[in-house]
Design brief:
Belongs to the Orn/Lys/Arg decarboxylase class-II family. It catalyses: L-ornithine + H(+) = putrescine + CO2. Its EC number is 4.1.1.17. This protein is of the alpha/beta class and about 425 residues long. It folds into two domains: about 5-70 and about 305-420, Lyase, Ornithine Decarboxylase, Chain A, domain 1 (Beta Barrel); about 95-300, TIM Barrel, CATH 3.20.20. It is built from twelve helices and 16 strands. The protein has helices at about 35-50, 55-60, 70-85, 100-105, 115-125, 140-150, 160-165, 200-210, 230-250, 275-290, 300-305, 335-340, and strands at about 65-70, 85-90, 110-115, 135, 155-160, 175-180, 215-220, 255-260, 295, 310-320, 325-330, 350, 365-370, 380-385, 395, 420. The strands form two sheets. Strands 1, 10, 11, 12, 13, 14, 15 and 16 form an eight-stranded mixed sheet that branches. Strand 13 (about 365-370) and strand 14 form a beta hairpin. The longest helix has 21 residues, at about 230-250. The chain is elongated, with a radius of gyration of 23 Å.
């Protein structure tokens, strides 16, 4: 999907139910029980929906619709800076390469991480200083290497000798970060199987770089997506900084950069630790190393997931052998692609659940939610307990700002879900 396809598009005309106003709360004063994670998310979503006027937005733009709030991008950047104040943030552009996100992050003084020509072009078109950008894909074609250098990128990640040789032909104003592999099977997505060098391999890479005259600025790692405990960060920091000190003593090289990658979690259908917990452990691990390296971060999901909310609509229902099915105007080949590609499970609420009054128990049922394509794989969730729904009723999913629209496809000829951009600013509930 090209960046242009993520721009705000005019919404198609849709048939609306009789009273959308009654489906999304207009009051922020409702008190919803917060005894479970779902209840807490629902309560926050009810307040937020009322504060931004989600009903009116959907009425004007139709469904399905992704509402992107740039204020929430700034909030997440501020949170990262509060908990890890010494770190330099390089947003993982692939998470949500939307021009409004790029502009917001650049204006906030953070930088970017890229892995392709398309991402570099997006940043250049937005007027971003590409010279501050990290190129982190460890495997590149020679044409990609040349394009990145000519675009202004001067720092590259490498994890094997063949890729280092491709970089060695560039002028000596570049440097590299050697990426290490630290397996983390508990992560939502363990990236160590595809990328990263062992410590022995990394030591050999450093010696090869010295022989080729390529500067090694330091090391990077990624402990895996959706890492919910601090232990993997602590282990990776400890092992990396020890390796850095050992190699400095052995080779005479001097390293100055420690790139912690990303992996900070978002609570989709389960609660996750506050960043404060992870941040404290990370700060302590860095302090224990006794080093004074420049610390980099490459957060993606953490910065943008909460910034986008999806509103979809029931287009039809049917009783199957396993119960009631509702078919929505968005699905796994669209905004819910994160279910298919990452195995995450965004919560789905009926808009009527976001009102101040609770739905009586008899008016609820367990249902299957399916997407609009003719593929039987296109099932968003099974066994979801929701109020009784009818054609035209709205459904709302929060935390849809990472790896959703970017991994969607045009399967069955479906258009990309439009993205409507707002800036709600600081909200007070």
């Amino acid at each position: 999907m090209t960046p242009a396809s993520l721009s705000t598009l005019p919404a198609p005309s849709v048939r609306r139910s009789a009273d959308d106003d009654g489906q999304i709360a207009r009051t922020a004063a409702a008190r919803v029980p917060v005894s479970t994670h779902r209840d807490r998310v629902r309560a926050e979503l009810a307040r937020y929906s009322a504060a931004i006027g989600l009903t009116g937005i959907v009425r004007r733009h139709g469904s399905p619709l992704l509402v992107l709030d740039t204020a929430r991008v700034r909030e997440q950047l501020d949170l990262l800076r509060r908990e890890l104040p010494a770190a330099h943030i390089h947003f993982a552009t692939k998470a949500l390469p939307h021009p409004a996100v790029v502009s917001t992050i650049a204006e906030a003084g953070a930088s970017f991480e890229v892995a392709s020509r398309g991402e570099i072009a997006l940043l250049s078109d937005a007027g971003v200083d590409v010279g501050r950008t990290l190129h982190t894909h460890p495997i590149r074609s020679r044409a990609d290497v040349a394009d990145a250098y000519c675009s202004g990128i001067r720092r590259f990640v490498v994890d094997n000798p063949g890729e280092l040789s491709k970089l060695a032909v560039l002028p000596r104003d570049i440097d590299v970060l050697v990426r290490l592999s630290f397996p983390n099977p508990a992560a939502g997505c363990d990236l160590s199987t595809k990328f990263g060098a062992t410590e022995v391999q990394a030591a050999a890479l450093v010696e090869q770089a010295i022989g080729l005259g390529v500067g090694v600025a330091g090391f990077s790692f990624h402990v895996g997506s959706q890492t919910t405990t601090v232990a993997p960060f602590e282990r990776a920091i400890g092992r990396t900084t020890r390796l850095m000190s050992e190699l400095e003593a052995r080779t005479g090289a001097r390293f100055s950069v420690l790139d912690l990658g990303g992996g900070f979690p978002i609570g989709y259908d389960e609660a996750v630790p506050d960043l404060a917990v992870l941040g404290a452990g990370i700060r302590n691990a860095i302090a224990a190393s006794g080093r004074n390296d420049t610390v980099l971060l490459e957060p993606g999901r953490f910065v943008t997931a909460t910034a986008m909310t999806l509103v979809s609509r029931v287009v039809g229902s049917s009783d199957r052998v396993d119960g009631r099915w509702h078919y929505l105007d968005d699905g796994l080949y669209g905004s819910y692609s994160n279910v298919l590609t990452e195995g995450v499970h965004p919560l789905v609420f009926a808009a009527s659940e976001l009102s101040g009054s609770s739905v009586p128990e008899p008016a609820r049922e367990r249902v299957t939610l399916a997407g609009p394509t003719c593929d039987s794989v296109d099932v968003i969730a099974r066994g979801v307990e929701l109020p009784v729904l009818g054609e035209g009723d709205l459904l709302v999913s929060p935390m849809m700002g990472a790896y959703t629209s970017v991994t969607a496809s045009g399967f069955n000829g479906l258009e990309p879900t439009p993205i409507h951009v707002i800036d709600a600013g600081p909200l007070r509930f």
